[in-house]
């Protein structure tokens, strides 16, 4: 399992925050888009190194920035470790039942990239009111039916 540590200054571009990765990613991790566990200020999260032009970067979303107590422009020590564990998303029971009941919706959902499945699940899970949750589940179904060609 490959592991590296380095210092970096968190960057910001286009409204997003990122960690520049000053490592030859393919040489260390065996591929350009390497799945890794990132640790910043004691906060660990799973991500994938991305190539951006001639450099490598890691996204650092708001939840991870808040958990690590960092912001764009901060100097941080970063640890990266290979992440070979399967990437899955736990679909809430009510959303799963709705996807299974709508023809083609489950297949369309399962065909999405992990990050997109996670975004849909988080949208439903973060709803505070039952009406909001139901509306968001209906939105997921509508989008999946459209992807499946039944919309």
Describe the structure in your own words.
The chain is of the alpha+beta class. The protein has six helices and eight strands. It folds into two domains: 3-82, AF2212/PG0164-like (Elongation Factor Tu (Ef-tu), domain 3), CATH 2.40.30; 93-148. It has helices at 25-29, 62-68, 93-101, 105-111, 114-125, 130-148, and strands at 3-9, 11-13, 16-21, 35-40, 43-48, 50-52, 55-59, 75-82. A four-stranded antiparallel β-sheet has the order 1-8-4-5. A four-stranded antiparallel β-sheet has the order 2-3-7-6, with no helix packed on it. The chain is elongated and about 50 Å long.
| Major sheet details | 4 strands, antiparallel
CATH topology of the largest domain: Elongation Factor Tu (Ef-tu), domain 3
| CATH C-level of the largest domain | Mainly Beta
Helical amount = 25-40%
Give me the count of strands.
8
**Mean pLDDT rating:** 92
Helices and strands, in N-to-C order?
Answer: EEEHEEEEHEHHHH
Give the CATH architecture of the largest domain: Beta Barrel
Shape: elongated
Structural class: alpha+beta
CA radius of gyration = 18 Å
Write out the strand line-up for the largest beta sheet, numbering strands in chain order.
1-8-4-5
Strand content: 25-35%
Low-confidence runs:
none
Q: What do we call the CATH homologous superfamily of the largest domain?
A: AF2212/PG0164-like
Produce a short descriptive summary:
Helices cover 39% and strands 29% of the residues. With 151 residues, the chain is of the alpha+beta class.
């Amino acid at each position: 399992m490959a592991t590296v540590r380095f210092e970096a200054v968190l960057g910001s571009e286009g409204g997003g925050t990122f960690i520049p990765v000053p490592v030859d990613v393919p040489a260390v991790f065996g591929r350009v888009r390497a799945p890794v566990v990132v640790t910043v200020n004691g906060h660990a999260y799973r991500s994938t190194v991305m190539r951006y032009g001639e450099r490598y970067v890691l996204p650092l979303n708001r939840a991870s920035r808040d958990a690590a107590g960092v912001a764009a422009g901060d100097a941080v020590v970063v640890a990266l470790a290979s992440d070979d564990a399967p990437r899955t998303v736990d679909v809430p029971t009510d959303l799963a039942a709705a996807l299974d009941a709508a023809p083609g919706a489950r297949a369309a959902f399962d065909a999405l990239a992990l990050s997109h499945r996670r975004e849909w699940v988080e949208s439903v899970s973060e709803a505070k009111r039952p009406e909001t949750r139901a509306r968001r589940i209906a939105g997921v179904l509508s989008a999946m039916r459209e992807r499946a060609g039944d919309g």
